[in-house]
Amino acid sequence: MLFKAPRGTADILPADQPQWRQLADTARKTAEQFGYRRIDTPTFENTHLFERSVGEETDVVQKEMYTFEDHGGDLLTLRPEGTASVCRAYLQHGMHNLPQPVRLHYLSRMYRYERPQAGRFRQHHQFGVEAIGDPAPQVDAEVIELGWRYLSQLGVSGLTIKLNTIGDANCRPYYLETLLDYYRGKVKDMCADCKYRMTRNPLRLLDCKNDACTSFATEAPAVVDHLCSECRDHWTEVRALVENLKVHYPTLTIMYDHRLVRGLDYYNRTVFEIHPPEHGAQSSILSGGRYDGLIEHLGGKQTPGVGFGSGVERALMNVQHQRIEPPPTKSVKLVLISHGDKSRFQLLSLAIALRKSGESAIVAPAGRSVKSQMRFANAIGARFALILGEKELEQEVLLVKPLDGSGEQRQVPLNSGSVQKAVGSSA
Q1: What is the domain-level CATH number for residue 64?
Q2: Backbone angles phi, psi at 382, to 5 degrees
Q3: pTM of the prediction?
Q4: Residue at 84 is within a domain
Q5: Does 50 or 234 have the greater pLDDT score?
Q6: How many Cα neighbours within 13 Å face the side chain of 118?
Q7: 3-class SS of residue 130
Q8: Same domain, residue pair 50 and 79
Q9: How far is CA 14 from CA 18, 20, 330, in A?
Q10: Strands of the sheet with 67-69, listed across from one edge
Q11: CA-to-CA distance for 55 and 387, rounded, in angstroms?
C-alpha cells in the first residue's frame, strides 16, 4: 500500500458505526435531559485563544498543539480541547444576555500531538458540556451527575468519581508556596518533568506518574488543608451535594483524592474525574471542573463556569472491554434482482419509487446471473429480494422472496405500492 491513515488517527468503518451512533445518541439525550443545548465551534481557532486559556506553560501548548500559519499570515491552531472555544463563542455572541447559566454541549474532533496509545489518538473525539454563568455548588454537582449518567447510560459499570478542590486565586498561591517548600528537599530524586514543573507549573507535581514522584505526591500537603473561607464553604457544599447523589444512584462510588489536579491553567476549585474499574495511568474516561476566571481572562467580565470533557474513543474502549453489545445494524431492506436486460430499466425506476416512498432499496450489480445476484442480496443482509424477469415484465408482476425464512415467495403487481404492502405485511 502507498498510503495509510496518519499515525494517531483511525478510520471509523461501517462496522464501527452502530456503537458510535449509540454513543452520540446517548450523549445528546443525556445532555438534553439536563437542559444542555448543542453548540458546534470551528475546527481551528486563533492560536492565542489557547495560549491565553489553556496556559503557555502547559504540556498542551508547549508540546501538543497543531499550529500553522495560513495564506493570510494568521496563526491558527487545530482545536486541542473544547472549553476555550465554547467560552470564546459565549463572549462573541453575547450569551451573557441569556438566562444564566447557559448550558451547552458538544461532540467534536480534537487534535493533540502526543504518543498514540490505547484509547488516545492525535485526532480524537470528545463529548463535553459547559455550564457558564452560575457560581453555585449545585451546578458543580449537576455536571458531575450528568457525566456519571452519560457513562452509565452507555452501559459502563463499576465507575468511580474522583473529586478534589484546588482552591482559587486567593488561597492557591499560599498553598503553592507550602507545596514548593515540601518539594525543595527532594529535587535530586525527582524526574526531569517534575524539575521543570517546580518553576513552571508546580500544581502538576501532584499528577506525576513516575514511581518515585508518586510517593512524594502521596505525602505532599493537601490543598484542602489550605483553603480560604470561600473555597472551604464551596467545597463543603459540593461534597454534600455529590454525596447526596448516592441516595438516588446506589452504585455510585466517590473517592476524594488530594493528588487530583488538572493540566490546564484555567481550572479552580472543584476538579473531578470518572474512572472505570480497570485503573491505570490513563484510565480516566471523563474529567472536568470549575473555571471561574477563564472568560475574564479572554476579555469578558468575571463569569463563573464548570464543565467536563470525555474522550469518545476511550469511552468506547471501555464499552467494548465490558462486552456491551451495540444495537443491530440496519441493513438494506430490499434488493432488486433482474433476469434479462429488458427488466433492468424497470427495476431502476422501481428502486427510485421505493426510496422516494421511504424504503431502503438497491439494485443488484449488473452483469451477474440471478444466482449471483441472490448471493449478493444474502451477503449484505437484505430482508427481501424483488425478482423481475422477462416473463414477469410481460405480466406486469414482480416476485417477492423473503430472505430470512419468514415466508414463501409470492407474486405482486409491479408497482411500489404493492411491493410496500407485501414487504410490510411480511415483516
Answers
A1: 3.30.930.10
A2: -65, 150
A3: 0.86
A4: yes
A5: 234
A6: 12
A7: strand
A8: yes
A9: 8, 10, 11
A10: 44-46, 75-78, 67-69
A11: 65
